[in-house]
Design a protein that fits this description.
By secondary structure, the chain is mainly alpha-helical. It has one domain: Up-down Bundle (Outer membrane efflux proteins (OEP)), CATH 1.20.1600.10. It contains eight helices and three strands; from the N terminus they run E-H-H-H-H-E-E-H-H-H-H. A hairpin with a 7-residue loop joins strand 2 and strand 3. The longest helix is centred in the first third of the chain and has 67 residues. The radius of gyration is 35 Å and the shape is elongated.
């Protein structure tokens, strides 16, 4: 029975507890990353589906435009150049539709990887701005105080500092007690037996160990210093992530407003150019260009709407609040504390709490 070991066991237990707390924060950070990847994959599928539909509709419109141009060429209203321009624009639109279909397949594969199921009947995505801090300074304060990556790094510092104490304890004395009980039987003489017992106290004082423990202690101190630097690095990383995500969200909002105005203007321009082309004031190329501008404007709007939703989730993740509980998802929550309490102070047994 160990009586005294210069605090080595006590420090080792505290170190293990710090590692448990650090692992909990790492689990929270992993949950954030999984949810952010899932939300991003979800919105990518919606974006690429909408862009594919826009490109397919553009192909249908250009096919009709090409048919009308050929009819007008037959009666001499336009030249062969106009027909060639319509054919070239149709081929380009078909190429863009094929590319959009390929992008959608890639997004579907990523969705299957991150979510675990095929995307079917996806509802429109909504931003989670109601869960975000009201200002960038508030978001920074919240992130620096509660982000799981920073908290995990801080627990890493605690574990490293306790490792210094664990190593230094090897330089101190240890004292233990050993108890022994023996009973001997004589095989030749019945009833001849002997019972003996002993209790021995053992005091060990290190005198010389060749400098190994001193070297390990210095190494542990250097490691603790490294962990402190990693905390500062993690804070800078989180701060940069918050600022970047916040800026992306603000930019996406502004892009949506601009894209909506662009779509409205491009739609009005296309209608006007078509009417003017009927009376000979516009060429076929003018109509094709106006059609392409409208498709580009609509694609930009779809992309901006996707970026706004993803950026809101990115901000929520950057401040350390993206979780199934925050989003109120209908999923069973894993309680790490319950698992910890089930095995705390368990001195024997190899079975895990789930029965393995």
């Amino acid at each position: 029975q160990n009586i005294f070991d210069s605090g080595k066991t006590r420090s080792a237990i505290s170190q293990s507890e710090s590692q448990v707390l650090g692992a909990r924060e790492t689990l929270r950070n992993t949950e954030q990353n999984v949810l952010l990847d899932a939300a991003t994959s979800y919105m990518n599928v919606l974006r690429d589906t909408a862009i594919l539909n826009l490109n397919r509709n553009n192909v249908e419109v250009l096919e009709e435009q090409l048919r009308q141009t050929r009819d007008r060429f037959q009666v001499g209203e336009v030249t062969r150049t106009d027909v060639a321009q319509a054919e070239a624009r149709l081929s380009s639109a078909q190429s863009q539709a094929i590319l959009a279909e390929s992008n959608l397949k890639t997004s579907v594969a990523r969705y299957r990887q991150n979510v675990g199921a095929e995307p079917r009947s996806l509802a429109p995505g909504r931003p989670v701005e109601n869960l975000l801090p009201r200002s960038l300074p508030a978001a920074l304060n919240q992130a620096l105080a509660n982000h799981p990556a920073i908290l995990a790094a801080l627990h890493g510092v605690d574990a490293a500092e306790l490792q210094v104490k664990v190593t230094e304890a090897d330089l101190g004395p240890t004292f233990g007690v050993t108890g022994t009980v023996q009973r001997r039987y004589d095989s030749q003489y019945f009833g001849d037996n002997r019972l003996s017992a002993s209790i021995v106290g053992s005091l060990t004082i290190p005198i010389y160990e060749g400098g190994q423990i001193y070297a390990r202690t210095r190494q542990a101190k250097e490691t603790a210093g490294q962990r402190r630097i990693e905390v500062d690095t993690q804070r800078d990383t989180v701060r940069a992530a918050v600022i970047s995500a916040w800026g992306g969200l603000e930019a996406a909002k502004a892009q949506i407003v601009a894209a909506q105005a662009q779509v409205e203007a491009a739609s009005t321009a296309l209608s006007g150019v078509r009417e003017e082309a009927k009376v000979g004031q516009r060429t076929t190329l003018d109509v094709l260009n106006a059609q392409q501008e409208l498709v580009s404007a609509r694609s930009s709007l779809v992309t901006a709407q996707r970026d706004r939703v993803v950026a809101s989730y990115s901000v929520l993740s950057a401040v350390g609040k993206l979780s199934a509980q925050t989003l109120k998802l209908k999923a069973a929550a894993y309680d790490a504390r319950q698992h910890y309490e089930q095995v705390k102070d368990k001195l024997w047994g190899t079975q895990t709490p789930d029965g393995r």
